């Protein structure tokens, strides 16, 4: 059987990071088995669904590198098919017309609350013959069993049992002829050939209600896997009070996509003690039995650590491209060709200790700034009369030097020795002259990246 998974977000808001993890799990499961990963936009809530939110979902998925098969489908566009299934269930006798009004339903519930009995509505129209139906608006309800219990097998939660007397005859079709979400989900999953439904465990109760439709229609049921939600560090559901919650926010904060994929995969799923792994390893290793039953806690320090490891091993060209995407996402000015060239040369000495793109940009300040360099206060303190004199002495030696690391280290070391000082003592003035910062990449790395002419020009500026 070919695996088909789906991600079905509602475009009523930004792509939540928890939803992004759900999409990632579906993507990994399908891609690791040569299957299909489908994207369905559940846009039946006309009042809250917007094109802007839909695009934000697509952008978030694209940033995370979660490619889908075919075009994204629209649930709302399939409403005619949903309604047809409701009428088919009606014809089978698995559903019925209910003429109860909202006032009557609320009156029933008020009486139930007063009597302290179940407020689960039991329609009086369930067994009324068609000949006795009034000429009035009606909804179509499914006939749920009222006795016994049902057990569903879940790949994460195990066997879950539900008493049938807790199921209502849920509405399939509203009185205006529009289908409800619960019906639409089942029909779409069936029609799309979905074999595995991997979603949040907040949908577990829905699975029992949706199962009624599968059974009444005689359709094959998909394998279920309900994954726990993501909690914040305090053990409560992840929300704005914990920090960023939307995928777009994490991109704007400068986390690399590969690091996010790694961290989100590991958040609630495990493969032995492995913490850092590649996309290829994740696709190969990921399975449903590795998902835990307990909610995972989001840890920003672990996220940064994983992201730092991915930045360190990333290909320079790919990192530069993603950096440009980060700048675009934050509305920053695009890089000039000269800056791109400089960053390409410097990436080897920038990415080793950067965990996010803002950190990488900060380390790349010496490339992104122009002469004359205005040193920060802490860096300027290193530019004394003595150190400026040494920089002036160093400049002519560099003018005739071969521009290699060994030669540069030798020239600077001999200059320091001539002034009876350790090499480290010259680092401060050189950093101030080349980057205007007290903290920067190695002074020799900066000299190699900047090149001979620019290095000498900056040293002369500082010496003067």
UniProtKB/TrEMBL annotation:
The keyword Aminoacyl-tRNA synthetase belongs to this UniProt entry's keyword annotation: yes
Residue sites binding ATP per the record: 240
Root EC class: ligase
Signal peptide: none
Domain of life of the organism encoding this protein: Bacteria
Pfam family name, one: tRNA-synt_1c
A GO term for molecular function: glutamate-tRNA ligase activity
EC number(s) from the headed UniProt entry: 6.1.1.17
Motif interval(s): 'KMSKS' region: 237-241
Every Aminoacyl-tRNA synthetase class I anticodon-binding domain range: 322-462
Family: Belongs to the class-I aminoacyl-tRNA synthetase family. Glutamate--tRNA ligase type 1 subfamily.
Subunit structure comment from the entry: Monomer.
Name recorded for this polypeptide: Glutamate--tRNA ligase
Source organism per UniProt: Yoonia maricola
């Amino acid at each position: 059987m070919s695996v088909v998974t789906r991600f079905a977000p509602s475009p009523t808001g930004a792509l939540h990071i928890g939803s992004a993890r759900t999409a990632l799990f579906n993507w990994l499961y399908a891609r690791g088995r040569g299957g299909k990963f489908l994207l369905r936009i559940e846009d039946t809530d006309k009042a809250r669904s917007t094109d802007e939110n839909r695009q934000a979902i697509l952008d978030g998925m694209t940033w995370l590198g979660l490619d889908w098969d075919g075009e994204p489908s629209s649930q709302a566009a399939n409403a005619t098919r949903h309604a047809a299934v409701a009428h088919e269930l009606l014809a089978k006798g698995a559903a019925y017309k209910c003429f109860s009004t909202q006032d009557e339903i609320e009156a029933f519930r008020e009486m139930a609350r007063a009597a302290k009995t179940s407020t689960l509505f039991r329609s009086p129209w369930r067994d009324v013959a068609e000949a006795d139906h009034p000429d009035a608006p009606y909804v179509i309800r499914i006939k749920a069993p009222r006795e016994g219990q049902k057990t569903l097998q879940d790949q994460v939660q195990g066997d879950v049992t539900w008493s049938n007397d807790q199921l209502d005859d849920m509405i399939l079709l509203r009185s205006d002829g529009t289908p409800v979400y619960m019906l639409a989900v089942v029909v779409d999953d069936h029609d799309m050939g979905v074999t595995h439904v991997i979603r949040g465990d907040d949908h577990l109760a829905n699975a029992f209600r949706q199962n009624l439709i599968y059974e009444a229609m005689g359709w094959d049921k998909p394998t279920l896997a309900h994954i726990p939600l993501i909690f914040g560090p305090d053990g409560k559901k992840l929300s704005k009070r914990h920090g960023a919650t939307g995928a777009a926010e994490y991109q704007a904060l400068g986390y690399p996509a590969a690091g996010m994929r790694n961290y989100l995969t590991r958040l609630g799923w495990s493969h032995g003690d492995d913490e850092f792994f590649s996309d290829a390893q994740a696709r190969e290793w990921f399975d449903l039995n590795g998902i835990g039953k307990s909610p995972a806690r989001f840890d920003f320090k672990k996220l940064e650590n994983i992201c730092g490891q991915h930045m360190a091993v990333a290909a320079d060209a790919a990192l530069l491209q993603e950096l440009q995407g980060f700048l675009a996402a934050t509305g920053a000015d695009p890089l000039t060709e000269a800056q791109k060239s400089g960053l390409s040369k410097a990436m080897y000495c920038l990415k080793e200790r950067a965990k996010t793109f803002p950190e990488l940009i900060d380390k790349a300040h010496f490339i992104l700034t122009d002469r004359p360099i205005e040193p920060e206060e802490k860096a300027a303190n290193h530019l004394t009369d003595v150190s400026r004199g040494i920089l002036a002495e160093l400049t002519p030696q560099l003018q005739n030097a071969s521009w290699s690391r060994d030669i540069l280290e030798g020239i600077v070391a001999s200059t320091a020795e001539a002034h009876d000082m350790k090499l480290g003592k010259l680092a401060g003035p050189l950093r101030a002259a080349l980057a205007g910062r007290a903290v920067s990449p190695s002074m020799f790395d900066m000299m190699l990246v900047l090149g001979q002419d620019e290095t000498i020009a900056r040293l002369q500026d500082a010496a003067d």
